[in-house]
Each structure stands twice: as structure tokens, then as C-alpha cells.
## 1
Amino acid sequence: MSVVTLTINDELVSAQEGQTLLSVLQERGIEVPTLCHLDGLSERGGCRLCMVEMEGTGRLQAACVTQVQEGMVVHTHSERLVKYRRMILELLFSERNHVCAVCVMNGHCELQWEAAQIGMDHVRYEYLNPDLPMDASHERFVIDHNRCILCTRCVRVCDEIEGAHVWDVMGRGVNSRVIADLNQPWGTSQSCTSCGKCVQVCPTGALFSKGATVAEMEKQHNFLRWILDGREKKIWSYENGK
Amino acid sequence: MNRSDLEALAQRELQRQQAFRCRILCCASTPCLSSGATAVYDAINAAIKEGELDAEVQAVSTGCMGPCSRGPMVTVQVKDEGEFIYEHVSPEVGRQLVTYHARSAASPAEELPEPLRTRLLPSDMPFFAKQKKVVLSNSGLIDPERLEDYVARGGYAALAHALREMTPEEVCREIINSGLRGRGGAGYPTGLKWDMVRKARGDKKYVIANGDEGDPGAYMDRTLMESDPHRVLEGMAIAGYAVGADQGYIYVRGEYPIAAKRLERAIRTAERRGLLGSRILDSNFNFRIDVRIGAGAFVCGEETALMASIMGRRGQPTPRPPYPAQSGLWGKPTLINNVETFGNIAPIIQNGAEWFASIGTAKSKGTKIFALAGKVATTGLIEVPMGITLREIVYDIGGGIPNDLAFKAAQTGGPSGGCIPAQYLDTPVDYESLKALGSIMGSGGLIIMDEHSCMVDVAKFFMEFCMDESCGKCVPCRVGTVQMHRLLERITDGSATLQDLETLKELCVMVKETSLCGLGQSAPNPVLSTIQYFLDEYEAHIRERRCPAGVCTLEKTPVTEWVHA
């Protein structure tokens, strides 16, 4: 595999051909916010938080879906980018009912964390306050559409890793909603294996375990790497992997 | 069928048509059908039968003739006398047309008996005189459901020529030299795209015609597919030969049942005659075309979303690169062009690239079809050479603004475009000039507005459209369009402050720069361009709580006012 050289924030960086720009940024410890990206899942390019400036193109590019190329000149934290990221977060907060104070994920939420990181202390847009339901029909888990940011990590993990494809999205635009099977109560889904991967990858309090109350829900998504590396190296148990 | 069979077919059909003294062409395109064209056609046929005129008079159900607001349209072609175009033809008038033109040599227009006289359009009407028909050259003259009609007017000769005389490389070169640019709106050079797909490696390649036209008020592609379906198929087949594809898809919007039906029929007839399918025109070239029907999503006009829809997935765009030319349908190199772009191909191959390049301006060649709508005397479908001025379109072709009102703005490009104010009426219409004015050529929607149109309200209308049609994949478009619409709503209901205008402007720029696909990237354009040219109207709404055009009600007050009161 050949090596390419690019410039990130005025520093020369070498990377492997075929790598995404985002993975290079993360390797270098350059923090750009992400929400729909998750190591181990296919890239979506939907949240637009990892947008970077690229000299010569005149357009902003989402780092997660951009492959590194020889001679690229990238800026990750210009004033404009930071402003846009903040605005995107504000839009997300205005879209549904993100009330941190009563949320199971308070203190562990990725949306909340990104907002705190960027210093988003208020929302300038009108709160849309949609009337959204919760579905607690599943034996072990709950989906709360009020907290969903439509990152579709759950959709992708269920399809790509678990292979069940329980989740998908219905409707369009601001009326999009994550649904189980053909829009039926999650508990009645026959394709769901109750593996809980969707719950673990969800960045907000939209998917959580029953019994968790305010600020009690914590999530782990390193398991994705274990599964993927295990599959690649054909290691089927933790003992073998030692 | 081979080339000489094709020529023989054309000759036979021409002889058949020339046997009639009088041919009565009745428009059967959607606008005329909705104003009762079927009854007119039936009445004309009945009158021919009653008068036992079958040998002299032929009634033909054709495609669009142009002035759609004047439908049902009927054109009478009389041997040695010329053409007579009638507007607003009722079944009764249709019957009289038959008896009059079949029997008597036509008298001068002013001596025609009533009600024919008032319905006859003047032969030198600027609506027709100022147009240049390349893509629509058969529209309104042939029966779209008969292959013979198309062949008689030179149809499939370009395909035969390309297959026999040209290599795929030469075809691409010809299209590059013609200067043809994509008619879907973005204006990418068509030949370059073809050449890229031709050079792309792949055992299988696809050609797609994008007929998912969705801009409000625009119906260029529908008319082309309804009026001359074989032309689109021929263009696609030539493209298939040029890029090395053996399968084509034509993606038709679900709201266009007549277009889909006529295309299906055209494909079947062409396959039966050996003009599509295997070993086309006795060559080694195979090319199949299938119709795919959309399910009512505007975003599926975006090429990656369109391909997702063809593949049976949710119609959502994916980031580019990779471009369809490298990895498109099922990961194979795919050529995707607008229906109108394909409509230009046969004439270019037949008449040569120089001929095509001689029409239009330096960087925009050929003609463009526009759906002229809004406040003009004659609305309808027009095809004009690139570089014509807006003034000519509005005042000559369109016949000016009714009720002696003043022209205020022209909206081009639908929800992705912008408004052009009166001071730019003399701008030549081409890709670059429109872009410089903050609008775009777009697919061809052209809405004329008079002084009774509120520009804020217009911007709000288009934003509502984008909000409804956003697919929801990326955040700036999904939520941004809703918030922009809310802000515009506040301006039009009187509850906005000047701060809201600033927030709106900032949001517009952000959504434009960060959205994933063309829908979101261009959704703020109607707002930005109306702010650019009609800022005074926005300010009048906010500062004076007054709508200069008298459209908005402004019944609310800003939140700050009742906080202080």
C-alpha cells in the first residue's frame, strides 16, 4: 500500500492510501466532532460535523467520507468551521426534545459532550417540540424518539454486524423516524435478536436499557472492534485471543 | 431491420401521409388532455367518419404544440395551403374544422367563418416565430405512439449512422465538440461525462435517463417523453453504444403515467422492429431499456438518490466521489443524463457538431426548453436558442404581463434557483449569465412574477417545498430547511425582528455550504437571491410590518414588543 503526503493545519502528514481523512485526523489526535461516524460501521456522511476545508476545491468536505489524496491541504478548525459545527448542533437540539436534565444519558451523551466541547450554551432557533412517542414494548430495551438524532448507527449495526436489519428509517425530512421491522412495536419484532448492539452504539438517550433512570445509562461500543478484529483473525472466544 | 429497411419504412410512411389532403393534428399532451382534448379528438374522428372523408382527412393524436394555456390545441395541415393553428378548440369547433378544411380551399384568415376565425392563431405569432425547435422538432407533429411517424421524420437515422460509420470514441468526440451541456441544471459538459464512462473499466455499464422532473411548474421532460418518446430512446441507445453499455434505465416520475405508458409502448415497438434489444440494426450492438417509476420523492432527481431508488433502496443521496461514472448502479460505471440532454443527441449526430455549436452563446450551445409559467399572457412550453434575452421570452414569446402590470421578477431553476429582477431583463439566458445573477439555468422552470407577487412569500413557498422534500439524511438540510421556513413564516406573519433576518441569512449560507447533496446545497438559493434583490421587501415586512405586494397578512407582533409592553 502506498503512502500519501498531505497537509493538515499547516503540518505535513503522511497517511496510507485509501484511508479516510477522518481516520488520519483521529490518529494524529486532531479532534473533530462526529456523531454518525462510529469505528466499525460503514460511513454515512450525514451529521456533517466533521466537515473540513480543503484548499483548491472551494467546498467543504465531510472528513469521514473523504479519502486522503496526495497533496491535499486541509484545515480542520477555521472560524467558519467551528461556527458551522455549533450551528449544526443547535439545529439538532432544536429538532427534537433533548432535555438533558431528565435524560438517562445525562453526563454520558455524545451529543451533549460535543455541545459542551464546542461551547454551545444556548440554541438560537425555535424549538420544534415535536410530539413523539416512546416504545417500551421490548423486554429489555426502550426506544425514545424524542432523543433520536437519526444518525442511523442502530440501523447500520443491526444490518452490518448483527445481520438482522430490524431497524430502518421511515418518512422523510424532519418527519423521518427509526422503525422496527415494518413500523411495529419493537417488542413484537420477530427479526430482533435482543442482542443490544443498537443500544450500545446509540450516541444519545434514544436507545437505553430498561431500569436505567436519569444519568444512569452508560454505553460501550468497543465491542464493535473486538467483533470485527475477531472475525478477521478468526478468533472466536476471548481465551483464544489472549 | 437494417438501414435500408429503415429508409423504406420512412418512405412508405411519408407516402401514406402525403395521400391525405388534410391532416388534423390534435394535441394529446397532459395540459391539453386536462382541458378536454380527448373529446375534441373523438369529435374530429366522428366528423371524418360521418362525412366519409377517410381518404382525404386524417386525424392524428400528437404531442405538445407549446401554448398550453390555450389548449386544447389543434393544428390543421392542408396540402398546398399550409398550416393553421387553432386554440381553445371544443368538440363542436373540431367538427367544424373538419367540414371547413376538407371541403373548401382556405380563405384568408380574416374571412374564416366564426368560430374558427377567433380561434385561429396568427401565423406570424411571436410565440412561434421566436422559438427554435431542435429537441421539440417533432413535438406536436407526430403521433408519439407510432414508431413510423418518428422514422418518417428521420428518426433512428442517427443511431444507424453512429452504429455504421462511427466508433464509440468518435461519438464521444462529436458530443464534446458540439459543446452540449447537461440540461438537468448543473450544465456539466455531456461529452466529457460520456468519455469518462467510456474510459471507465468495467464488464458491465449502465445508461440512465433522468426523467424525475420535480421543480414546481416545470414539465419539459414530461412533454418530451410524452410527445417524442423515441427520440429519448434513440439518444440513450447512441449513448449506450458510445460508452459501451448494454442496459439502460429511464427513471420516470410516478406522477407521469402517460409518459411512462408511451415510453413502455415505444420500447416494445422499437424492440419488435430491431431498433432496440439484441443486434440493433443488424450490428453487433445490444441495448435494452427498461422503465423505472419513481414513487414521489423530489430528491430522487439527484443522481445518487435516483440510482439508490433503481436498486430498490431508500431514495437517499450518497456522498460523491465516487462519481457514478466510476461507481454507479450496482457499483458499475454509469452514465446518467437528463431526458432533455438525450433529446439533443440524435440531432447532433445527424447534423454534426458544428451545426449544433453554431446555435447559442460562446459557452452555452444549442437550445433550452423552458416551461413558461406565471404572470404572462401565454404560458406553455417553449424552446429557445441559448443567449436569447429574458425580455424576448417574457414580452415576445410570452406576450407580456397581463392586465398592464409591471414585470417584477423571473424565477428560474425552481427551488434550487433564484429570482432575476427587472433591471436584468436584457441578460442573455445561458448557464454563466444566470449563475452570475445568483440564479441558475436549472432544468427549465421559468416563473414570471408581476408586482402583485410578494418575494418573501415566494421564498417561503420554495422553502416549504424543500422542507417537505428533504430526505432527512443530513442535518443541515433536514432541520435547516425547517428553521429557515419558520423564520420566513415569522417574517410574513409579522412576528419577526431584524435579528431574525440575520439568523436567516447566516443559516442560508451554512446550509448551502454543509449539506450533503444538491437539494440542501441549493435550497437556500431562492431566499438568498430574493434578499439580494428585494431586501427592501424583507425590511418592509419587519420594520414597517407591511407587505408591499399586499400578499402577507402580518397579523402577529414580534415577541420583543409584548415583552416590553
## 2
Amino acid sequence: MSIVQTHNLTKKFGKFTALDQVNLHVDEGEVYGFIGPNGSGKSTMIRLLLGMIKATKGEATIFGMDAWKDAVDIHKRIAYVPGDVNLWPNLTGGEVIDLFMKLRGAGNKNRREEMIEKFKLDPSKKCRNYSKGNRQKVALVAAFASDADLYILDEPTSGLDPLMERVFQECVLDAKKDGKSILLSSHILSEVEKLCDRVGIISEGKMIETGTLSELRHLTRTNLLVETKLKVIGLQELRGISSIKETGQVLSFQVDAEELDMVIKYVSQFGIVRLESAPPTLEDLFISHYEVKPNVKTVI
Amino acid sequence: MLKQSFKQTGILVRFIVRQDRVRIPIWIISLLLITFSTAISFSGLYENQQERQAIAQTMLNPVMTAMVGPSEGLDNYTNGAMLAHQMLLFTAIAVAIMNILLVAKHTRMEEEDGQVELIQAFPVGRLSNLSATVLVVCGTNVLLAFIIGFGLAALRIESLGLEGSLLYGAALGITGIFFVGITAIFAQLSESSRGTIGFSFAVLILAYLIRAIGDIGNETLSWFSPLGIVLSAEVYVYNYWTPILLVGLLALLLLVIAFFLNSIRDLGAGFLSSKPGKIHASLFLQGPISLALRVQRTGLIAWAIGILVLGASYGSVLGDLESFFKDVDMMDALLTQVDGFSLIEQFIPMLMMVLAMFCTVPALLIVFKLKGEEKKGHTESLLTRAVSRTSVMGSYVIISIVTSVVMLLLAVVGLWSASVAVMDEAIPVRTLLEAALVYLPAMWTMIGVAVLLTGFLPQFTGVTWLYYVYSFIVVYLGALLQLPDWMGKLTPFGHIPQLPVEEMDFMTLSVIVIIAITLIILGFVTYNRRDILG
């Protein structure tokens, strides 16, 4: 069942189109990774889903309800953490967490203490004295201490240290284990790789790729490292090969997925001593989409 | 849908009260102190009706009308009439400022900083934040109105009756609520908190000016200003309640518009959108001085225009004053009585003092900007480059001092050009210039205090404003309230020779300049030695 569903969602700010007919769905119990360069429309998407801005065209539903009209009802079952958390300078972190829990209605006192402990937050400090990371912890504690069905997290770890990042990842996986759904927008691709079941890549307001990580990988190149008995010749003439690097008898290069079979057959003629293959990282994926963009533009 | 829009307003109300648990009481207590202490001091100041009537005579001139409002109660100048005449307008302005700042903080400022977004992600109505803000701030006004009303009545001063006192409180409260409406609307229209506060203050200043012009000449005009309408309640004289009701209705209308605008806009968006800026730094923007200047450009231009208009509006009154003095032969308690000078000339020192006081504000704001930038971490990004602390602070101090001179000159230009147009025998521009520029040392001393505090006690820079307000009250109202002389000597403004009536006193001026320089140097020394806030 889809928890979040958008249909041709479009948002224009004056003449500028921030989101262009985006279709996205997040299923129950799924962690959905939402990635894209700065200014690509990630935050606009999230603010549309939260009913803070109104779609120009198309529709967005959460739990089957309209994201704009039924915002209040939807929010009873949502926890949101923004990337840039600004709190009220003259209140303590503990006060803010309590307010947040009270506003949602449901909440668990024990979970609150547990999360404060986990994230090593000092709740007695005034918010004006918190660093960026600590302000983010306040929002994260309030979010994970709540009993939400959907977590919307907009670059939630941008201020956390690696240790806290790990705590955060545990919390996400725990929530997933409990059957919750998570929409995670992030820049940290290793984090998305670790946590997400499915990924959507957005660029210039358009959803350019979506699917499971392995589906996406299929679309791109595999990294190969080959050591052969004889020197490989004529490799650059083959189709679908790029970034060839040669160090003595060891060759490393990237191969398009559909040419893989043909390339392996060709290379094996030279007597393979060692063969290592690595799946493309999300970074490769991301960059390959990013680089393609100018060509796409000229076609259109 | 409508009921949903206000969901959880109650919790947010309590939350705002919690946040403002110190701020709101400070405002209320200060306003109470000013009102009650003035009421008490008035009753002790004048023994009988004759004495009050004598003061009333001195009030019967266009300058006073422009400053404090119409003079209906002057025929029978009771304690109450005096309080309402001299204090109601200024207190109402203070109340308006309180409301502008409180509303802007909880609406656009929190929206800009992202706190509203955090709250809005909870099951909270789209209009809940605005309605909670309006409830709390309007509640503050109602509370203020009742305490002032019953409090004034409880003082048991002759002629401060219960009805009049309640009306006095209501007049203040309703002015406040009107500006809740104004600020709430600009919080929807403008995309920034600066814009919200700026536009709201512009309305306040406009309301004051329209009323001033209206009260001198054209009474209908005063009805276009909320302050003018409120003053027509004639508190303690005739006690009309209709104007209060009228302003209340206007406020309600404003609030309805604000709620409507809020309901149809996106979070974070405004109706007056900002233009895209330059891609490269201009040739002008090349160092700390020009950066400091560029950051404050808009504010400084607005102040320059404001000061020019202020000067001109005082200047335009001089014509009325001249013909007024020709008809009436009287003495004025506000003025130093010296033979050989026309009454107009005797008015000049007071005018200049007031203008100099106003011109000090933008100069002080520049110094405070340095601390504001520091707190936001902007100064840090300058200091981590090859820029010394002395040059950072120096840029602001230089701009501040230049601003004090430029603003004062603009005030004189405004005053002189308007007075030339309306007067039969114009005052020579040289006289005006001398009378104005002589205040510069006092203004620099205020700058010095601000610089020293920025360097030495950055948490307490606000003390400068207290000192400023003290100076204003003591020097401006000192004669009226018959304050002891030594109180006037505690502010640099009290030492300035009153040209053209008094002799030029270079000795005193040099001492004040030396004090100002010392304060500024101490500020630099301490600024170089302390930790940078961040």
C-alpha cells in the first residue's frame, strides 16, 4: 500500500518551475531515499507533502488524504525533521521536545528519555547555546520519541558527527522494523545506500530516475579491474567502455551494463589472472546523471 | 476546514506566553511606571488651577500642537487634561512600537527562521500561529488597558475620574491592537521580518505626521490617522468612547484581512517578493567599510528621508509660530528667557535638541549593527580573513560618525527650506547650522557609550538606549516636569550651549569631544581584547 503518492505534482514560483510533474510513491514499511543536487526541488517537494505550500498542479496524498486540505489530520501521524533546525533561543531543549510531543498528541515519556540518552543530548541547555548539530538532535529526539507512521527527514544529519550519524541510522532501521515508512532526503549518498530500499533522483524539478538501488545500478556502468597474462589491445575500440586506466598489466575501466557480456568475452582471450568487479556507487550514478544533463537539454 | 485552520491554537498561546514571560512584563511595567509616575508628578508640580492654566498658555502654539496633539482641554487644564494632552500620544506610540515588535517576532521573524515550519509540521492549523500571536498580543493590550485604567483611577488624583482613566487605558490598548493588525498584515505581505517591521514603523510614522499636520491646520486630515482618531477621544475632558470603538473596528478589519492573506499564501512566501541581486560585488563593495555601508544602505536611506521630512515638518510650523507670536504676548516655560532675541529664535535650541536626538538614533543603530553582525557570526567570517578587529570596528564607527553629521545637516536642510517657504523673515541658514552642529559632540558621546559597551560589555549594549531615553526625557521634558538641574547635567545633551540664545562655549564642547574620543578609544581597546561572540 502506498503511504505517500504524488501524481504529476507541479509547483511554480512565478515563472520558475520548481517541480515539474513529479510522480513518487512511498510504500508502507519502506525507506525511500530522495536525492538530488542543491536547488533541484527536494525541499519544495517535502514542503508540498507537508501541506505548507500549495501545489500549482497535480496532487499529493498521504495516508490517502490530500496533503494540503487534510494537513492537520495527516500531521497527527507524521514526524518531520528539517535540515536546518532553528529553535527558540530562550527555551531549553527539553522544553522544546515536550512542546513538540504535546503538539503531536501521542508520545512516549520513556522513549523520550531513551532517545535523549541515545543522542547524548543535554536537554537542560537553552537553545541559543546549542550548536547546529545539537539543535538537530532536539528535532530528531522529538521525532523518534513520537509514534509516527511516516517520518519525513530532510537532510537530517547535515550537522551530526559520524557517531551520531550511526545512532540516527539505527533509529531509522528500528522504525523500519516496526513497519514505519520513511522518506529520507539526503546528500550523504553512503547513508542513502545503507538505509534506503528505493531511491528517487531529482534534477531541476524533474524526477529523472526512480527504483531500487539494484535496478538503478543496472542502468549504469560496472567498475572492472582486470589483470591479464597478455597485454590487452584494442579495448578502446569496443562499445560501452570508459575511463580506462592502465598500470602495467592491470587495467581498470567502466563498462555499460548491456555491453558487459561482450567485454568479458573479449578480455578473456588475453588470459585472465585476476578479475574484480564493483557495483557502481550511488555517487557514480548521481554523477553520471548529472553529466548527461547538458546532452538531454540539447535534445529537448 | 475553517475549524481545522485554528487547531491547537491554545497550546501555542501558552507557548508564546512562556517565551515572552520576561519580555511582555518588562514592556507592561515600563509603560505603567511612565504613566503613573507622570500622573503623580503632575499633581505635585502645580499647586492650583492658576498655575496649570499658566502652563496651558505656553502650550497654545502650533509647535506643541504638532508634537503632542490638539489642545481642546487647555481652557480648563486640570491634572487629567494635562496628562492626556502631554502624555497620551507618546505613550500610545510606545505601545504601538511594543506591538509591532512583538507581532513581527512571532510571525514573520519565526517564519523566516524556520520555527513556524517546525510547528506547522505538527497537527496544527494553518492559521494557528497567527491566531495565537494575535491572542497573546491583544491580550497584553487589554491587560495593559485595564491596569492603566484602574491604576490611574486608584491614584485618587483630583480630576482623574474612573471613566476618564478607563478611557485613557482603552485609548492605549486600542492603539496597540490597531498596530497588531497593521503588523499582522505586513507579516503576510513582506517576505522578511525586516520588511515587516520597516513597513509597520512607516505606518506609525506616517500616522504621527498626518496627525501633526491635521492638528495644526486641517482637522479632517487627523481622522486619517489612527493616532489622530484616538486623541479625539479627549480623555479627561469630554471622554468620548466612539473613537475607541472606531479604531477597534478598523483593527478588526485589518486582522480579518491578515488572516485571509495568511490562508491563501504558501509558507515562507510573501506578496511583495524580493528582486534578484547582483552576481558580482560592485566596484564599491571592496572592503569592511563599504561592506558595513552596503549592508545598511536601505536603512540609512530610509532614515535620511525620514530626518529630512521631520526637519521640514518642524520648519513648516515655524511660519504658524511666527504669526502666532505676533498676536500673543506671552512667556514660555519651555524657553530660556533672554532679552534681545525673538521668541522664534528662542525656540531654535529646543528644536535643534529634538532633531539632534532623532539624528542620534541612526548613528547608534550603526554601532549596534556591529554587535548584531557579530552575534550572527558574520563578523567571524571577516575576522578570519586578513582584516583586523580595529578595522572592522573602525568601519562602523566612521560610518556612525559620518552619519551623525549627514543626518544633522539633512535635518537643517529640511528645516531651513521649509521655513524659508513659510516665514516672512526667514532665519539665516548660518544661525540654524551653528545651532545644530553644536550638538555633534553630544551625539558623538552617545556613539562613544555605544562603542564602549560593544567592546567592554557586549551583552549590555541595550543600556545605551536607556541612557538615550533618559537624556531625551530629562532634556526635553526637564523644564516641564521641573526636574532638578543635576539630572540634566548627567547627559551630554544637557551641557550643549543653546545657540543662538546663549554664547558659544568652546571650552565645554572641547571637553565633551574629549570624553567622546576617550569612550571610543576605550571601546576599541576592549573590543580587541575580548572574545568574539558567535
